[in-house]
Design a protein that fits this description.
By secondary structure, this protein is α/β, with parallel strands linked by helices. It is about 35% helix and about 20% strand. Strands 1-8-7-6-5-4-3-2 form an 8-stranded parallel β-sheet. The chain binds D-xylitol-5-phosphate (DX5) and zinc ion.
């Protein structure tokens, strides 16, 4: 059985209670904290920058899985790594020199991840498949939390699993967008191992129980 990692998304945290909510998901056994950086240019929304990464770094011991939805993502590699990011994931749409960018991410001491919009082909990462530490499949159009899972993402996850397996990669295969009780198990069966969840966790009556429920849905024998 594959290890399951649950990565609650900071985007859905109640910022007035951030310290408490982070302590709660940490106690719930969450594996990573997913941090969405949006620049209002690549995606039609603004979110956090280096100051927020520094702040959450002080509030949790969870690895910070930073998803950069920004043009020219390389501008931020150094400062985000210094602020405490553990992984940096960039979009192929913003990275014409993808191999160079991935090497730069490793140089700053982070795990190197790549992702793409739902409309972008997996072919965009084929040539760098063996250089990846993480491959993120976007199952919504990036920019907002709380959107509906796009069903044909499942087929992309399956093809991503084949692509990684073919090159003998042990990269994390992560899914982001609309992950909840009704979608997580199918993604796991398609080959994903790491699951971002914002609304499903922080919008639940008991976020702590939700982390466990999501993990268990992957790991129980029969659905
Ligand atoms: C969307 C972000 C996601 C978002 C997921 O652009 O990349 O990480 O927080 O939120 P949910 O789980 O609510 O779809
Ligand atoms: Zn994200």
């Amino acid at each position: 059985m594959m290890t399951v990692r649950i990565a609650p998304s900071l985007l859905s945290v109640d910022f007035a209670r951030m310290a408490d909510e982070l302590a709660m998901i940490e106690a719930a056994g969450a594996d990573w904290l997913h941090v969405d950086v949006m620049d209002g240019v690549f995606v039609p929304n603004l979110s956090f920058g280096v100051k927020v990464i520094e702040t959450v770094r002080k509030l949790t011991i969870l690895p910070l899985d930073v998803h950069l939805m920004t043009v020219e993502p390389e501008k931020y590699f150094d400062s985000f790594a210094k602020a405490g990011a553990n992984g940096l994931t960039i979009h192929v749409e913003t990275a014409p020199h993808l191999h160079r960018q991935l090497m730069r991410i490793k140089e700053v001491g982070c795990t190197a991840g790549v992702t793409m919009n739902p409309s972008t082909s997996l072919d965009a990462v084929r040539e760098v498949a063996s250089d990846l530490d993480l491959l993120l499949i976007m199952s919504v159009n990036p920019g907002f939390g709380g959107q509906k899972f796009i069903p044909h993402s499942l087929d992309k996850i399956r093809r991503a699993r084949q692509l990684l397996d073919r090159v003998g990669s042990t990269a994390y295969l992560e899914v982001d967008g609309g992950i909840a009780r009704d979608t997580i198990r199918d993604c796991y069966l398609a080959g994903a191992t790491t699951f971002v969840a914002g609304n499903a966790i922080f919008g639940a009556p008991d976020p702590k129980a939700e982390v466990t429920a999501l993990r268990n849905l992957c790991l129980t024998e029969a659905a």
